[in-house]
Design goal:
Largest sheet: none
Number of domains: 1
Helix content: over 70%
Shape: rod-shaped
Structural class: mainly alpha
Number of helices: 5
């Protein structure tokens, strides 16, 4: 998305737009632009993983505080559209509550 916006800002088309956008994004020309895009991707991935986990841990904690029993919360966790590893983490967190 960042590259598309940068390409639109150049006012150019095709390969010239890509080259100019990459050069504008990074400190060392095109290579710096590619590195900058890679860093942006890794950072956004880390933030999204932390954010989703924090939200789900908060939901489980709130359900427990509201008086739901652990078995009903575990059933809800199994229905969530999340990865198996996150389900395991949530079940482990629930066991500690």
């Amino acid at each position: 998305m960042v590259l598309v916006v940068a390409m639109q800002a150049t006012g150019l088309y095709g390969a010239a737009a890509i080259t100019t956008a990459l050069a504008a994004l990074g400190p060392l020309g095109m290579l710096g632009g590619v590195a900058t895009l890679g860093i942006i991707g890794l950072t956004s991935e880390a933030i999204s993983k932390f954010g989703f986990e924090a939200i789900f841990f908060g939901v489980v904690k709130q359900l427990y505080k509201q008086g739901e029993n652990k078995q009903s919360i575990q059933k809800k966790i199994q229905k969530y559209p999340i990865s198996k590893s996150l389900k395991l983490k949530l079940n482990g967190y629930l066991a500690q509550l």
